[in-house]
């Protein structure tokens, strides 16, 4: 079943190994395995991997019973992503500042050069 799912989902070796380690292929029901692969890939895409991925997948065995813990995990990851986004925005602000500084220097230089030509 693992090879079939790997082809079906276009899984890389890394993803296949991650899914094996997370215990995704221990189920017999192909539909359940496909759902767990889809969920695991989404979680991995969100930056949840390794031990935490296995933990969250285990919680999804009974999502209604584990709703509070699942929400906590997802909100924690949201916070991590949001902090990374803020860090990237600060970097963008720095680049914009440098671009604006360079633009002003160029404009001042051009203005000075034109005055000297007159």
Automatic annotation (TrEMBL):
Organism: Amedibacillus dolichus
Lineage top rank: taxon: Bacteria
Protein name: MerR family transcriptional regulator
InterPro entries associated with the record: DNA-bd_dom_put_sf (IPR009061)
């Amino acid at each position: 079943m693992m090879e079939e799912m790997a082809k079906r989902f276009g899984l890389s070796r890394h993803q296949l190994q991650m899914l094996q380690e997370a215990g995704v292929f221990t189920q017999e029901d192909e539909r359940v395995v496909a759902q767990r692969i889809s969920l695991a890939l989404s979680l991995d895409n969100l930056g949840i991997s390794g031990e935490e991925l296995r933990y969250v997948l285990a919680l999804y065995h009974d999502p209604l019973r584990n709703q509070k813990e699942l929400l906590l995990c997802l909100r924690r990851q949201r916070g991590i992503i949001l902090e990374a986004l803020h860090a990237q925005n600060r970097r963008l602000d720095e680049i914009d500042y440098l671009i604006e500084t360079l633009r002003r220097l160029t404009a001042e230089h051009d203005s000075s050069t034109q005055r000297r030509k007159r």
